[in-house]
Design brief:
The protein is built from 12 helices and 15 strands. By secondary structure, it is α/β, with parallel strands linked by helices. The strands form 3 sheets. The chain has an 11-stranded mixed beta sheet.
Length: 355
């Protein structure tokens, strides 16, 4: 196994200065007028930050020297380079980013031919406590700011190659909903990155209030972490089931119009002897066939001291074929970056942060 681990230089942010990265056009107008720049300078600033991805205010050369100097007294871009990278044998790269709070968080760059996906984090750790997840074992270290979230996109090497972003890294995105919604707004806004919402997927265990807001305020794709179609069994794996129940979640999702503009998918980690029986398959069909959706089957990546085991390849294929033949479009997601603990459920930055 070949593992490349590289230390990378960094820009140390000034905590007293406010960050331009993460500001909307209206907020940039306020920043411009505060330092004596004309209102139209906000559009120029947005182009420098989101279009050209500059790393310092000095690079904003169509602003006057006096204006740049005044802006730099109170503001900075807010970008920070990753402090570490691990390279997988399959081309996947896992990056460790510092946050505004002084902690660390991981994100994963996944190249695949002409596609390149970035799996971003929304929290340091996670408070959902899923028993099969390394991030859940880490515990909750705090919410990421909008700047922290966007910095993963802004500063990851190869960012210009990105075709897709998935909020499937550390944390529960709907548990940090304000920051996630603002980040996706800037990713899709004409004065931000101007991406199509179809290029962004937000994952969730199904927090009801957050889910209602997300469905109302965002056009990005949604992925639900399901993992078991029976609420009592799901509760044993995912403590969040107690507060954010499967029954209510499915009822809410059934009311939505899942057109071609937005896709709904269900993530289903397959555990050997636990959720891979015909009984589970039948219940999945009953539960999901009335909804326009797809299922992504995910291999369980074993973690230390875990009672869970992955299902066999034969069982994965059987489950995929059973669901598809019964009207639920199902695929098996390719595992990437397992040798560097970058695959689904393996992100964990607590030890690195303490170090």
């Amino acid at each position: 196994m070949y593992l490349c681990k590289v230390k990378m230089p960094n820009i140390v942010p000034d905590m007293k200065k406010r960050k331009l990265l993460g500001m909307t056009l209206d907020e940039l107008k306020v920043a411009a007028t505060e330092v004596g720049l004309p209102g139209y300078a906000a559009k120029q600033m947005a182009e420098w930050v989101y279009g050209k991805r500059v790393r310092s205010i000095d690079e904003m050369t169509n602003l006057s020297l006096k204006g740049r100097s005044a802006l730099a007294e109170h503001y900075e871009i807010g970008c920070m380079l990753p402090s570490d990278v691990q390279q997988s044998t399959d081309g996947t790269a896992k990056y460790l980013f510092p946050t505004e709070s002084g902690q660390l968080v991981e994100c994963v760059f996944i190249p695949d031919g002409e596609r390149a996906t970035l799996c971003v984090s929304s929290q340091v750790g996670c408070r959902m406590g899923c028993r099969f997840c390394m991030t859940g074992r880490q515990g909750f270290g705090g919410n990421l700011s909008v700047t922290d979230i966007l910095n993963q996109v802004y500063s990851v090497p190869g960012s210009e190659r990105l075709t897709n972003i998935v909020f499937m890294g550390q944390g529960e995105p709907l548990d940090n909903l304000d920051a996630v919604l603002k980040a996706t707004q800037l990713l899709t806004d004409a004065n931000g990155w101007a991406w199509s919402p179809k290029r962004i997927t937000v994952s969730s265990v199904g927090m009801k209030k957050g889910l209602e807001r997300f469905l109302e305020e965002s056009e990005c794709h949604l992925a639900i972490s399901l993992h078991n179609p029976f609420p009592d069994e799901r509760l044993l794996m995912m403590p969040a089931e107690k507060a954010y129940g499967l029954t209510d979640m499915i009822a809410l999702l059934s009311k939505q119009d899942w057109s071609h503009q937005r896709r709904l998918s269900f993530e289903y980690i397959v555990f050997g002897g636990l959720n891979d029986s015909e009984r589970h398959a039948r219940e999945l069909v009953r539960l999901l066939s009335p909804i326009e959706c797809r299922v992504n089957l995910i291999r369980f990546h074993e973690i230390p001291d875990s009672p869970f085991k992955g299902a066999s390849e034969e069982k994965m294929v059987w489950l995929r074929d059973y669901l598809t033949q019964h009207g639920v479009t199902t695929t098996i997601r390719a595992s990437r970056g397992q040798d560097i603990f970058a695959a689904c459920g393996l992100l964990h930055s607590k030890v690195k942060s303490e170090t």
